[in-house]
Batch of 2 targets.
Target 1
Amino acid sequence: MALTVLSAAFPLAPVGPDAVGGAEQVLSRLDAALAVRGDRSIVVACEGSRTAGRLVSTPAATPPFDEAVVAEAHALQRTAIEGVLASTPVDLVHMHGVYFFRALPPPGTPVLATLHLPPAFYPAGVFTPSRPRTYLNCVSASQRRACPQGAAIAATIENGVEIPQREPPHAIRDYALAMGRICPEKGFHLAIAAAQKARLPLLIAGRVYPFPAHVEYFRHEIKPHLDAGVRFIGPIAHARKARLLRAARCLLVPSLVAETSSLVAMEALACGTPVIALRSGALPDIVEHGRTGYIVDDERGMAEAMHAVTAIDRAACREAARRRFALPRMIEDYLALYARVIAKAPH
């Protein structure tokens, strides 16, 4: 029997095939998979989103994204979710945003919330929800270990990425790449310092969302260092991202928080590009030190690894990605979890 799944995104970031954030990318891949299977996918997301299933859009927020704007966005999202549930039989609501608890629907339809961020980013009450039939999912073993004891975790499903069926020929160029949301916790200033120490060009790709802290970070920590050796190229679409990853000497992941996963690291490995990452959260589980890249402790170690990385076998990176991070495995795991949650028997 076909499923009807209502997915709720973080209401300030559009979803789609070229979404920047990991949560938005995961939602988009699940939406597409449900549509291909013949299931019914309904997505509540902000204006500007692109979905395979039915899009129920909420108004795009007006910058800057202060607390009042965030609260209003979640109030509008909750209204949209309740409107869908009142008019359409839904088997499961799958929520992805960090503040999902602000938009939880009334008791009834089961809710699965995927925790995409470090547990410390969520209030303690999230882990023992009072709403009946509300279940949590982690995206890595590292994240699950960091959750409070007794947390209502139904499953741990690691993220997955598309793996190229064949590797198009592409010349390797002498630059490093760093990608993601431009914000303080992602540590792009450390990538800049490392590239300058290593005397290698750096490309920074990503979006600066209009949260005040993000805008200030870009203005003070990134923009003053942009020159011929450090370039900011903004958000990039899927095809260009793949080309830049394949051509890069390495990907830098200088995150300062305990990353729960890293889609960009997985995408880099799928393209055969080694990854140099700080020793943070799940990153040491994703990068096999000395085989698919290097795990380092600071920008000095990152700079040294940028020279050592030429010894990494790029074919080994691709093989590791195929073995560990294939998108079909993630989708199958979520579909199995959907069935268990709907049957009231998560385990």
Target 2
Amino acid sequence: MKLLSNDCKTLSPARDFLNQPMKNNSKNGHENLGFLSEKFGFMPAHEPIQGLPRTHFAWDDLAHNLSTLYRNQTLRKKLERMPVLSADRDSLDDVFLLRASVILSIFAHAYTRVENEPPVNIPDSIQTPWIEITHRLKRPEPFLSYIDLIIYNWKVRDSTSIDPMRVENLDLLIPTVNNQEERVFYLTQVEILSQTSPVLMHVINAQEAVLNNNKKALIKEFSLIKKRIQHITKVSLPKINPRPDSKTHVDPIVWAKTVAPFAVPLKEGTQGPSGTSSPFFHLMDVFLQRLNYSSILGQEALKIREWYPEHLRNFLLAVEQISVPSYVANSKDSKLLNAYNEMFEAYAGTNGFLGAHKRKVYGYLEMAFKVGRSVTIGGFQGLFEDKTWQEVDRQLEETRQERLLT
């Protein structure tokens, strides 16, 4: 903790840590070690790069035509014939690594999923540079991360829009099946993370209110966090809508057949880009001092956090150092406790975001397993008669209850 000399305000470890990654990212001209900033939270500070150098045109070209090749079943041959391009430091500048990671990760999954019969191996044209990119990004192994599939896989239609980071104003940077179900399902997650970007600074402000014993300021931050969570619960999450008359209709059957299987990890033990990977969940859990991670999804969350980029891991550790719930409990202040409980319910309550998310998952997974899906991104698997969607629902409820016990 630091003391700010001009107003004698004690700063939280999280704010102290935040400054250095922001400076590093600005100096380096890239965010390879993790998206982290006051304004954009866990989202990129700049719109994802839409092109690689001419030396790697083959990747861009195939990515541009990916959905067509996927649809007409010629993708595997194209990828097998694609030249093996180097992704070492002499061949590809750091600024292009995140786009290259998106492309190669999606290529690997597309190559595997495009046909019913899985391939024996992923071709060197994908695997060799994918391994190089993984090493340079300091990831434990090649895998399709939440960053690749969601956080760095979008582009804005109209940048002059007052509120551009909405599903209606976004397109996928690299679609695979290129249907409404894919676009809305992925981009709703982009919208949610973008709309909760202010929560990062509200969390820091709340911790500093605790350090400076400012209950009025703390109540204000609780209220602001609650409003952001209520917004994504009522406005953003419902955009994944099963109703055919909705402008953001996501047909459960089409989704199950075309989108749902794509991101399932290629090998057991590898992290998949499930919703649990969203940094928003991890920020809230650390801020609210979640202690119980014994459920299947709780254990998955801890593994996901270990695989996060360096800046994100260290920031969450910094947030973890200040216990806001303990301060609230010890204060015995009824107004403060009520404000905290309202924020907590907005996040983890039955009718809060986690409750709404659980109901949304149940509806889509029930239909998915009825039409033949056998495994989820998070590793839950079984046949229709096993009613696996009910097991997922039980696990989501268990992990929600774990938050209530903090």
